[in-house]
Amino acid sequence: MLRVRKSAVGWAVALALTAAGLTPASPAAARPQPAPTIDWRPCATDNSAECGTLSLPVDWNQPRGERFDLSLARRVAKPATREGTLIFGPGGPGDSGVDRVVNGSSRFSDDLRARFDIVSFDPRGTGDSHPVVCARDLLARQPQLIADQAQFDAVLADNALLRADCRARTGSLYDHVDTTSAARDLDAVRVALGERQLTFHGSSYGTLLGQRYAELYPDRVRAMVLEATMDHSVDTRAFLDSQAVTAEDAFDEFLAWCARSADCVLNGRDFRAIWAGLHARAERGSLTDPDQAGAALAPFELSRLAHKKLYDTWRWPGLAEWIVRLERTATTPSAPALADEAVAPYPFAVFCQDWSLPVRDYSEYAGHLRRAARLAPDLRYPQALFALVTCLGTPTPVANPQHRLRVRTDVPLLLAATVHDPATGYDWARNVARQLGRHGAMLTYQGWGHGSYSSSPCVQRAVDSYLIDQVVPARGANCPAVEPEV
């Protein structure tokens, strides 16, 4: 549970954050205070990286109230070449920034690692930063798709039970895992690191964190990259439609690669007919997953797993092989294995505090299903449909609702956008660029995959130049596609 800290140290940290401009300051609180610090120690799994925690308010409107520990990690640049700190905003929601730094620092170029300490964190409510936890059986009640009005009503009731259970098990932090709160955490991290301004690279869901920070603290942004950016201005219908179109486009690109590549095991075969047959088996309940000990694959899960394998082009040959194995699996599904643990982490809780996606009743929900199937006849069930289910009945207004961006930074934010991104569509990036106006710049990667920094040397060079020297790419800048490797 949350620890209530009323010690002198706790008060000093709260006052220091107020003095740094993170909370409304009273005259007494405005006096200079020691800056909050992070006690860095060698990480348990890799002592070449450093791990630490930062004590922060659960509710930024009550800086002297309950606190939690934000978990962080860093890799330090060599003193001779160090210029500052680069903070990475992890995706998900639910990805671990600590794990990214400790185990995945190769994501960043040698040049970046030479110039910057690389720092990231587990966002509040996830990983080791006081994760939201809930009863596993209540989480398991959430259906992938809703079949009728009776089930729609049952989901509303079950979701209310789930919210109460998560709140009871997690404590008051459960109500404050939204990205606005996380943006205030991010500024506290900047202060604790001794950085006058923020140098930031956010990926996927981490782009919401960057966008919100730039809105709240525009004068504190030194440079900010938004890679695979989300558009936090769309309503329920636009959110679902864009996700369906984006997923189907990525699937079409995968099929085109398979048709031209001898490295695809389905090359020369009628791929769409094979895929339609798998969907039909899933609808009948006779399709099993060869990677899950024969567990049944429902239609939504079939689409979800295929969609996930489209995120990286190096996975494409494996996706084709998986489809061949699906063709050959037995038609008698086995019962799913039961987990022993009574509780489970629930990192998706942040989504329901960042997005208001209301659905009146089953009739409206069914309309969304039909429209998604028309827009994405192959991947008929975009993952966004589950967001509607899991957030159904969330009280409004949510803490960080959708809105058009209002950013006024001195240095334009850099959007690194992929034309055939399977998760955060190119249209989202273009729409965000329009909202940013002269306070944004867009670099287009003409290829495939969820993100581009790690897959395109051209994108990497442009992003590094922006982060290191604040060189903004010219209007219309783009990088050529890199053919999938096998």
Automatic annotation (TrEMBL):
Family that this chain belongs to: Belongs to the peptidase S33 family.
Keyword NAD carried by entry: no
Signal peptide bounds: 1-30
Coiled coil region boundaries: none
Domain Peptidase S33 tripeptidyl aminopeptidase-like C-terminal: 387-479
Name of the featured protein: Pimeloyl-ACP methyl ester carboxylesterase
InterPro entries reported in the protein's UniProt record: AB_hydrolase_fold (IPR029058), Pept_S33_TAP-like_C (IPR013595), Serine_prot/Carboxylest_S33 (IPR051601)
Organism the protein comes from: Micromonospora vinacea
Keyword terms of this UniProt record: Hydrolase, Signal
